[in-house]
Design a protein that fits this description.
10 strands, alpha/beta, Purple Acid Phosphatase, chain A, domain 2, 155 residues, five-stranded mixed beta sheet, globular
Length: 155
């Protein structure tokens, strides 16, 4: 299963939509800050499941602050990260994922791409798809045996 993961799009939807059209993932995940940007993806790719969470800039959003989704055999914890103080440490994020029995924790907020494993949890930040000098996203492949491969790519 392939998941396209975007965060912090801040209105920059063209490159995100182009990448989805190119890759044709099995699922799209948006980690907040302008979760309304998912509207263009829902319209253009209604056949691809899309899950999103709200970020600190998503005033009045109907999306949850965090959610758990299944990616094949792997449970993934999705959040923007601002409620877990990820600018300083991902420890509370890892703990939240472990509490939910998730092997994957996805977050944004810092605008810096990162992928690491902590306490048996693969922790991934796709970076920012909307603002900054380097725009990035993550392509995550979940294998039938529960293995997880992460590629941080430029937009």
């Amino acid at each position: 299963m392939k998941a396209a993961v975007f965060s912090d799009t801040h209105g920059n939807t063209a490159r995100m939509a182009a990448k989805v059209a190119e890759v044709r993932p099995d699922v799209i995940l948006h980690l907040g800050d302008h979760d309304r940007d998912t509207g263009i993806l829902r319209q253009r790719f209604p056949e691809i499941p899309l899950y999103s969470v709200c970020g600190n800039c998503d005033y009045g959003s109907q999306e949850p602050v965090s959610r758990v989704v299944s990616l094949g055999p792997v449970r993934a914890f999705l959040t923007h990260g601002h409620m877990y103080n990820v600018r300083w440490s991902v420890d509370s994020l890892v703990y939240a994922a472990q509490e939910q029995e998730c092997k994957l924790a996805l977050y944004g907020h810092t605008h810096e791409a990162d992928s690491q494993e902590i306490g048996g949890v693969k922790v991934v930040n796709p970076g920012t798809a909307g603002m900054g000098r380097k725009l990035t996203w993550a392509l995550i492949t979940v294998f039938d045996n529960g293995g997880i491969a992460v590629e941080i790519q430029e937009l």
